[in-house]
């Protein structure tokens, strides 16, 4: 079946709905209301996938779903806090309904940072980031297990979003770095458990500098609200100026959300039919 899918790849990249690399397949993409997640949802839909657009912001999720449907694709928006188990279950139910009883892909992209140096990081900061970046993806994968542990030969994959912070560590991000390393371990375990019998592929993308609200200036005012608490996002301008900038990035620039999303699409597609348990560093060459 994998070889048959590979034979269908040629020419699909430039096609619009409903043909494409993921034609007829169904995907859940979390954090899909903006940034990398929104671009991934649009790309998956353009390649023929039915997309569950999941985001904590109902309006943004609906905007992305509406854009997909306006272009002839199939999508449904599901809003809510991914750290709540009832929201996880809603996502799986919505995907199964949208896919006619089948789910093919999960992209665990939802996330944010809550930075602090080690000696000042609170238990709440630690627990929130760990729950968001490790427990929530685990719960979603577990809830969707009946739709992945099947032997029908269809293309199924899980793509978990990590970070170079998880590979190399990062000052001021003990919680985030630990969680993003943890998701790599979860990914490899999924690949080893669900690959042999069911052919499920699991991979991780570790992003470097990508232009999103997490890498914008903190002074711009981006924030997320969790349980009534407002968490500021971004990097302080003073800290950004003190860093090496893009001097250590061979491409000398930040990546775009579209470029980041394209790497997720590649891993989910038959183009990477023999890639599993891998962590793809998307960094513009930084770290080589």
UniProtKB/TrEMBL annotation:
Residue intervals passing through the bilayer: none
Ketoreductase domain mapped to chain residues: 25-197
Pfam families referenced in this protein's UniProt entry, alphabetically: adh_short
Gene Ontology molecular function, alphabetical: oxidoreductase activity, acting on the CH-OH group of donors, NAD or NADP as acceptor; quinone binding
Keyword annotations of the record: NADP, Oxidoreductase
GO biological process, one term: fatty acid biosynthetic process
PROSITE patterns: ADH_SHORT (PS00061)
Signal peptide as annotated in the record: none
InterPro entries according to UniProt: KR_dom, NAD(P)-bd_dom_sf, Sc_DH/Rdtase_CS, SDR_fam
UniProt family annotation: Belongs to the short-chain dehydrogenases/reductases (SDR) family.
UniProt-recorded name of the protein: NAD(P)-binding protein
């Amino acid at each position: 079946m994998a070889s048959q899918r590979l034979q269908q790849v040629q020419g699909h990249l430039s096609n619009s709905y409903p043909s494409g690399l993921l034609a007829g397949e169904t995907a859940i993409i979390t954090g899909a209301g903006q940034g990398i997640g929104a671009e991934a949802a649009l790309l998956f839909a353009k390649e023929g996938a039915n997309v569950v657009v999941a985001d904590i912001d109902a309006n943004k999720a609906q905007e992305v779903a509406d854009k997909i449907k306006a272009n002839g694709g199939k999508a449904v928006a599901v809003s809510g806090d991914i750290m709540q188990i009832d929201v996880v279950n809603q996502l799986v139910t919505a995907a199964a309904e949208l896919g006619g009883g089948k789910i093919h892909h999960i992209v665990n992209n939802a996330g944010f940072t809550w930075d602090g140096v080690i000696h000042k990081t609170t238990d709440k900061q630690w627990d929130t980031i760990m729950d968001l970046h490790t427990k929530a993806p685990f719960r979603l994968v577990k809830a969707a297990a009946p739709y992945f542990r099947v032997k029908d030969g269809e293309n199924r994959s899980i793509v978990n979003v990590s970070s170079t912070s998880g590979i190399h560590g990062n000052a001021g991000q003990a919680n985030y770095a630990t969680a993003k390393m943890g998701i790599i371990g979860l990914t490899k375990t999924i690949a080893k458990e669900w690959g042999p019998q069911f052919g499920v592929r699991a991979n991780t993308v570790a992003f470097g500098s990508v232009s999103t609200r997490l890498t914008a200036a903190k002074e711009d005012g981006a924030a997320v609200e969790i349980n009534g608490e407002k968490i500021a996002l971004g990097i302080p301008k003073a800290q950004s100026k003190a860093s090496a900038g893009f001097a250590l990035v061979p491409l000398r620039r930040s990546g775009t959300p579209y470029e980041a999303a394209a790497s997720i699409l590649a891993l989910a597609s038959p183009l990477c039919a023999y890639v599993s348990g891998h962590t793809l560093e998307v960094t513009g060459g930084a770290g080589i």
